């Protein structure tokens, strides 16, 4: 995900050096692969295309290395796939000795739009510093250079901003040194016989791979941080694909390394130049620590990690339960934060109630195996929260759960209370059918929320419809040419951005990689 | 100087590795000095000021390190003097953990105008790549950084282009690591008792010092190259100030290291990434090799260098003499290049005739001491060129020398034929008096040409007027606030630039540092 804007800079955070040491013991190896230009393209305006632009091949990669550029010219390189890495290039002057520096501007785009629509027009509310560009002034030619920042792109535009009239410029080499902590060497084969699902699986794995760096990043273009909500979904896909369990373990320890005074986990972690927990706290994300830990323990049987992190997980449960009101429902207020979905109007009370019950269920699974003393307490809590949900949130007239004082009806509320297993399987099935036939006004905005909808369908065994939703939603991105899945995709509003500009959206985003988990786990 | 735009890229150039080896044996030591901000200023529009802007102190340097900058803010740092060096800074975030890169833009200005008037408006014909700027994207904070390029500035503007709304930026340190190959430790005291001249001498030495790097550069901001015409004047001032003779020797060998097939020296040399002679050739500049060598030999008595370089010098004389026509005058044509002055309308024939005779006189001085076999030939050439000058170029009616087919009358022609010692001392004196009382249309445009005018006055012993000219011209720059002398200065047209923009003019330029030579050599 990306952050909701909280500012809590006066909080006291507590460091836990032993947790940090554990995380740093297992810093991952990064695998490198050189990716070379595949073609030179021009961008054609095309309203039929999702971002308004169509690439047209105008030169080969070999031809590019023959080209002599004069001041004011530009080139758009297509690397043929979404890449995360470091740009290396060499160039030389042609003509008279270069009597002025060469001023080059590099613009990196996950989409063609990013290298065509001027950043100067950007007016989103996320920092424009995320827009990927670099101006270089080469005092000496020939010149060989590796740009110090890591970039994320399929397209690279190079503007030859200024040379002099006495010389031209030629590139003698250019490549991306791409990096990932995911090794595809032992990737289990995908068993599906369905061709579109096979392609969706490939794109999902490419998405996961490009987000797997020194931590599970949310998006390699922007924020490039470890968010608990993204980690949770990435760990699921990791489990059925590249199986880098040490990276999951590392990320769990990173979250545990710095907590709020009361023990609450931050929603995300900065890793460089040192590990710092952000001052953003989210009700749902903190609880998901329990979920990730349960999944990790189930896959690895790593008793030591569980022993060390279970108390941290338990603390999240206690903090969350303290928010439950006398009526058995998570208290709503204007000053709390739960993520659930990128939706300005969404009331998050009911969905948060669902997340709490869902995570208590996961805690119960752990408790039964490793901490039986807590089983009875958890069973009792789950039961009373479920009962309260039905009593307080269910609206018999509409046949939906409501949320907040205004009794808002949203997709998210229904989905999460199904995932919480509130009501009977039959009632849950009926609820999801009604959700489809009578869609509430407050819809789903992100692949993240879509994941939970599909998960809810699978929870009630609606395998066929789940498959259809995957093909309809993620399949549409593939049809639009995606080779990694996007942070945001609303088929009805292709330019939708919660940040005010599609240019700043992330087009390779962790929370969108979950089709592989569905396809492989449920053998779709 | 800066180049006239020649393109001769298909020439064959000949490398002389032994000459190059000699040059590289004596690569100079660079002296480093840290220069810290002196004040924070704002720029006030002020039409009374030469470049239209007046600095107003708004904060102390200490106060700057306390300041917290938000996105969109900027700061202008005044280093208190003209500097050449590398920017080092450290900064940190204030507020929440930095959740986006910090995008900073650094703009360096020798003048306040450069950091205030937007580069985007620049429309000069020299490459905009010389405009000193750098965008930095800091992914991690705190951050410590040294910008890789060398800059030239008195003022540094930092634009805080983008942060995020969650944090602000504070600089924790900032300095320039300045460099020069001039050591001022043993600088001889300036004997003048005249206060304005003393200040002019200081500014001239500061100019020389900041142009002295791995070679004598023409200007440390732009072109940063070794030009023969600039070297000649720098070597003069070096001789009476910092006395770095190995650097003069190195530069002579650099010119000798790569010549045109016929032996002609290039007007300038690129030093990095390897030594390359430019494909610009200038009649006057090539001849000046003789002059620099004579001055160097006279100061150092370095017989070995003279023995190795005299043949190179002699070749320049032979090439130049080949251009003398049957009438005893350097042939004019539309396809030759002599620099003389930055003046579009100046006909350069007569001045070039003067340069030739002047350099033959210097060659004669060398020949008398070290190559007596050539004395008679030189005396004969000088005599016939002088006679021809009087016969062909003198216009009795106007009392001026003329130049070219149109018989143009310019300052440059008179000055150079005086420096060539054509005519009697009395006639030369009268000519210079007439030049003052009846100024021709074609005036002088640069401090470079002004140098030769002052030198001509001193040649005819007009010490008082020479002093007045120095005070009037260079003194006016000092009054305008210059602490290094400018490439271009026309008191009547303060924004004059032969390049189409004052922003690209060099404000610390080698050829303007000669007042120190006059003041110290002639004991003004």
Automatic annotation (TrEMBL), chains A, B:
Signal sequence range: none
Domain Alpha-L-rhamnosidase six-hairpin glycosidase: 192-519
InterPro entries named among the record's database cross-references: 6-hairpin_glycosidase_sf, 6hp_glycosidase-like_sf, Bac_rhamnosid6H, Glyco_hydro_78_N
Domain (Glycosyl hydrolase family 78 alpha-rhamnosidase N-terminal): residue spans on this chain: 37-177
Transmembrane feature ranges: none
Keywords for this protein: Hydrolase
Superkingdom assignment: Bacteria
Any GO MF annotation of the entry: hydrolase activity
Protein name (record): Sugar hydrolase
Organism: Buttiauxella gaviniae
